[in-house]
Amino acid sequence: MYLDAIFYFALLMLIFALSDIISTVTKAAVPSMFALSVFCVILFWGGLAPTNILELAGISSTLVYVVYYLQLPHMGSLMSVKEISVQWKTIIVCVAGLIGMCLATMTIGMLVFGKLAATVATPPLTGGIVAYLIVSEQAVAMGRQDLATLALAVLVLQSFVGYPLTSFLLKKEAKRLASKFRNGEREGSDEKLAEAKKPIFPQLPEKYVTDNVVLFKVSVAGLIGILITVATKEFLSRYVILLLVGVILSEIGFLDRKPLIKSQVFGFTSVVIVGYVVVSGIAAASPETVISMLIPAMGIIIIGCIGLCIAASVAGRFVGFHKEMAMSVALTALYGYPGNFILSQESVKAVAESKEESDYLTSRIEPQMIVGGFTTVTIASVIVASIFLKMFF
Asked: Environment class of residue 136 by beta-carbon count within 10 Å: exposed (0-12), middle (13-18) or buried (19+)?
């Protein structure tokens, strides 16, 4: 039992490590998330690893939820209230992109693949496992397992389009920003980044701020978020509430900025979340499932992405986003968190030549991508799925 657990955990970490190396060697031309997806396909479809590898490696569904409840306040701590207040442009671009996606799939996609296929495939394409579950359950209830399979195929395959496309666009944006930075030009204001308000919450002396103290505080943030969720009967998604709790508690000084990094557990929590989203998602899809729906799934994904990119680019022009950044934030619909966070880091790492340059690029890319992911995957995709359920089924 113990030998099996450490063996499968080591195997899991091997494909994570190789994915990171490939991303570094190719300067993010092949994103680590994309490489990981390919490794998973080879392992599972080739019969080289069991599909329940996460469970065998000791990563239970309970652990996944605990980590989610730590990661989301951590993400909230990355953004100040003032910073969120200026992210309205990102939200507009994301919403415009999703509208463009839905219009494309429900017109061109419907004409090519049929009304039901387009209806079932669109919500998962707008982002999120929850949206997939909503439409797949309805498809099964209708006795249309083939449509449920189509929704699963879209959920699995969309990242193969989203990761490399976003990586390409973000690196292009990072190079543009870096070029201006090296010439002494800066886009946006650094005023909010340098701002240091006195925290409301009493601060412990630095010698008492140990890894365990920091981890305790982010655990409390997660607990508060879930208590609010239960008290409000999940009027808002728990993920949105947890994010907001992280923002508020870090603003008043209770929660440390970047607490999971500060407590030195961020790497492990990322493995748990990515494992759940990517590894388990691919493990759940058999070759027959994906192949049978490959053409309609990829067709709708491509049509939807074209509509999304056009609409996001147009909206971006009105709010001052360069087209690469506008398309990138809208494309978070295809993978959400942690892909948006990892792709942001990889694009900066591939371009930055100094710490100062890295900090500058991160401040111009990462906040937009994080807000983009929550706008598309956490909030909008569930709304889209609910609307489609009432309008088209």
From this structure: buried
Counting Cα atoms < 13 Å in the Cβ hemisphere of 363 gives 20
The C-alpha atoms of residue 282 and residue 151 are separated, in whole angstroms, by 13
Residue 30's SS3 state is: coil
Give pLDDT, residue 56: 92
Residue 202 is predicted with a pLDDT of: 80
d(CA 129, CA 277): 9
Q: How far apart are CA 220 and CA 30, in angstroms?
A: 37
**Phi first, then psi: what are they for 110, rounded to 5°?**
-65, -40
CA angle 16, 20, 25 (to 5 degrees): 145
pLDDT score of 194: 42
Q: Two tokens at 153?
A: 């195929």
DSSP state of 59: -
Is 73:48 a contact under the CB 8 Å cutoff?
no
In 46-144, alpha helices (H) = 53-56, 61-77, 81-85, 88-104, 110-113, 115-125, 129-141
Structure confidence by residue, pLDDT tens digits, 157-181:
787 788 889 989 999 999 999 998 8
Helices (H), 26-79: 32-45, 53-56, 61-77
Splitting the chain (393 residues) into consecutive groups of 10 residues, what average pLDDT does each group show?
Answer: 84 93 77 82 89 90 88 81 75 93 95 90 80 75 78 80 90 91 73 57 85 95 94 78 88 89 89 81 74 88 96 94 94 82 88 89 87 77 74 63
Quote the DSSP letter at residue 142.
Answer: T
Q: And the tokens for 184?
A: 């002494």
Taking alpha carbons only, the member of 33, 82, 326 closest to residue 190 is 82
Q: What per-residue confidence (pLDDT) applies to 128?
A: 64
pLDDT of residue 29: 65
Instruction: Find, among 178, 210, 168, 209, the residue nearest to 351 by Cα.
Output: 178
Q: Give buried/exposed letters for 112-135 (b at 16+ CB in 10 A, else e).
A: ebeebbbbbbbbbbbbbbbbbbbb
Task: Give dist(CA 336, CA 346) in Å, integer.
Answer: 15
Give residues with Cβ within 8 angstroms of 349, minimum separation 6: 24, 28, 358
